[in-house]
Design brief:
about 25% strand, NAD(P)-bd_dom_sf, Quinone Oxidoreductase, Chain A, domain 1, zinc, oxidoreductase, about 25% helix, oxidoreductase activity, about 325 residues, ADH-like_C
């Protein structure tokens, strides 16, 4: 089969490779659509020691089972492979599994014509949900999981909150679209990339450049940092109101920017969110199938063989697409 390999920092190659043999309890999925995640870009730069080249990256996908118990079924997948026995799994928090592994990290990922994956990771798709839309399940579930965590910490209903989303990449844009679906009326996205802002506006959201506008400090009940860099953490702390909530989703760097004195004096709740649970993924499939997030025409579709060029364009900020989906 053909697969796109990460072979070293900022180096990707299409290679012919053998399919892995199928083992008991697993299925082989023919990939129909697979998204490029920010963590794939992080690995591409050589900044993720967990992803050791040569490796097939990719973990956001939809396809059809061609071998295994669900043969013939259309599926998306939970890229986290969990043990089911640790305390976190038994509590229903499988995303925190003490023994988790992951496709596209510890085993071959979805930037290929097929992959093998445990059956418990597969989620059946309704016939009405196209593969391109279904490939957004993973990033949209990340956003939904974070929103649900933050919502439990608010003193008033989420729909009444003034909300700022920092970053209009895939997770930021999907966070904004889900918040709109949940009835949030006072919602803005901040992003320095004009192409990303145009995409957010096209999707029906309000977006601005934080470098060109004086931000009101201490007025937002909820702030989502979908970048995770020192300047965006600083922005989140400055703009959140007393008693508000910050959700930290991005993982761009770990170089400060967090004013813990302000967090303490303002009694701010600072949260992190890691991926999603199986329940989040299933809820997201329903959400996408209902078209509650509007038309997904902001997704850019590329051939898998053009994946290296897609990575280069994303790194250079030359594409307006919040999400690039590769099709084998």
């Amino acid at each position: 089969m053909q697969a796109l390999y990460y072979v070293g920092p900022e180096r990707l190659e299409m290679r012919e490779t053998e399919e892995l043999p199928l083992v008991e309890g697993e299925s082989r999925v023919r990939i129909q659509a697979t998204g490029i995640c920010g963590s794939d870009l992080h690995a591409f730069h050589g900044h993720d020691p967990r992803r050791i080249p040569p490796l097939i990256l990719g973990h956001e996908a939809a396809g059809e089972v061609v071998e295994g118990a669900l043969k013939g079924k259309r599926v998306t997948m939970n890229p986290l492979i969990v043990c089911g026995d640790c305390d976190h799994c038994l509590e229903g928090r499988q995303n925190l599994c003490s023994n988790r592994t992951m496709i596209g990290m510890t085993r071959p990922g979805t930037f290929a014509e097929t992959l093998t994956i445990p059956d418990h990771c597969l989620i059946e798709l309704p016939d009405s949900l196209p593969a391109i839309a279904a490939a957004l399940t993973e990033p949209a579930a990340t956003a939904l999981h974070a929103i649900n965590r933050l919502e439990r910490c608010l003193s008033r209903p989420l729909s009444e909150a003034r909300v700022l989303v920092i970053g209009a990449g895939a997770v930021g844009l999907l966070t904004g679209l889900i918040l709109r679906y949940k009835g949030v009326r006072h919602l803005e996205l901040a992003d320095t990339n004009p192409l990303r802002r145009q995409t957010a506006v096209k999707a029906g959201l309000t977006a601005f450049d934080p470098r060109e506008r004086s931000l009101e400090e201490g007025v937002r009940e909820a702030v989502f940092d979908c970048v995770g860099a020192a300047p965006t953490r600083d922005m989140a702390v400055r703009t959140v109101r007393t008693g508000g909530v910050i959700m930290h989703l991005g993982l761009q760097d770990n170089e400060g920017g967090l004013d813990v004195r302000a967090i303490t004096l303002k009694e701010v709740t600072f949260l992190g969110a890691y991926t999603y649970t199986p329940t989040d993924l299933k809820a997201t499939v329903d959400l996408l199938d209902s078209q509650a997030l509007g038309p997904l025409d902001w997704v850019e579709i590329r051939a898998l063989k053009d994946g290296a060029d897609a990575f280069s364009q994303l790194v250079a900020g030359k594409t307006p697409a919040a999400k690039v989906v590769l099709v084998p």
